[in-house]
Design a protein that fits this description.
Pathway: Cell wall biogenesis; peptidoglycan biosynthesis. Keywords: Acyltransferase, Cell shape, Cell wall biogenesis/degradation, Peptidoglycan synthesis, Signal, Transferase. The active site is at residues 319, 337. This protein is mostly beta strands and 422 residues long. 4% of the residues lie in helices and 37% in strands. It folds into three domains: 1-131, Immunoglobulin-like, CATH 2.60.40.3780; 136-237, Immunoglobulin-like (Sandwich), CATH 2.60.40; 241-366, L,D-transpeptidase catalytic domain-like, CATH 2.40.440. It has helices at residues 168-172, 342-349, 380-383, and strands at residues 43-47, 52-55, 61-66, 68-76, 85-87, 93-96, 105-114, 119-128, 136-141, 148-149, 155-160, 175-180, 186-189, 195-199, 209-215, 220-221, 225-227, 230-237, 241-246, 251-256, 259-265, 276-281, 284-292, 302-310, 317-320, 338-340, 357-361, 365-366. A hairpin with a 6-residue loop joins strand 24 and strand 25.
Amino acid sequence: MTSRRRLTLLAVTIAAAPLILGGCTADRDAGAGSGKARPAPPELIVTPGDKTREVPVSAEVGTSVKGGRITAVRLTDDKGTPVKAEPREDGSAWVPNAPLQPKRTYTAEVTATGDHGATTTRTTTFTTMAKSSKPEITSTLYFVGNRTYGTAMPVTVAFDPGIPKEARADVQRRLFVKTSPPQPGAWSWLDDGSQVYYRAPDFWKPGTTISVRAGLQGLPIGKDRVGDAEHKATSTIGKQVSLEIDNATKQMTVLRDGKQVRRIPVSLGKSSTPSSSGKMVIMEKHERTTFDTRGEPNGGYVVDVDDAQRLTWGGEFIHSAPWSEGDQGYTNVSHGCANVSATAADWLMGVTQVGDLVTVKGTEVPLQAGNGWTAWNVSWDEYIKGSALPVPSGLRPAPVAPAHPGAVAGGSPAPAPSVSGR
């Protein structure tokens, strides 16, 4: 990558006293002996504090410097082996590239350099805790490595059970996304904490490389649970494809780079099992699969289908339905899916990608948040309200200027009322 943007996040707070030691070193001032004062060395605080024990394996080397900048960080284990780490964009911490090992001792040596060359170095040694016996929260990253995704692909992390509101900031700090070329985005949580999404204000640019890390292994989550695993993946964004389905016309419009390439008749959900209206994302593609709805309301059938593309967790797909071809374009007869002809379904499978946007409008029910990857089903202004951390200023919507007291429709000032002496 020519350039990588690290998601700006705050450092994980580690329950340990900060290290503040004497014995800093400073470059000798050229003016010493001539009455000139030596430059003051920078003030440096490092966490975990020296000799801290029971540190989580998700720990980071926290740094706080005043009057300078961090110029060197070296982290080694108890065998002297270097531990690779990367700085957070705000400089608040160095994050190991993998979880630390349980019941091991680590040493961090951090150097800060002041504006005039004086340096301060701090060294801290800490010991990690044993593998936690607390129950784990299961996490799933719905972003697989070495794939090509559509331009609406959100990075999605799911949790079971959901993350409580008071713990979401700590979890979000351990979710990292890098894009090349840079295209900043933000995280947003579902109300129940079962999923968190990452996307940019606009769709990904074709050709963008996205690298994701969910560094959750051993992370304390609330008082009673810990994170289960470390997830990493790097993939690429492919061509821009989107589908628009209009219940009024019973037609699907296929667009590539915003231009129509085909219209396909569809049959949507009948009144007793309506399709959802909203902005969805293709989640899975199957050349052949089995729908088994036994035990579900309005279900009870088992049927094999070809060329099926999932849109919701609730079971709405676009798929081949040769049995309804006479209704497609005219009448809704499905159980909520978008039925298309066998020929059209086969063609679509060669055109679409997981992560392509599918917009359905005009049906009886709205798409419910979390029923699929619903990150695009709200405006950007509404989406960023779901972040558990402050959203960078460049991604926040611009404040709306108050209207001029005399403004009229169209934004032009209205003439001020005249003052008459009569």
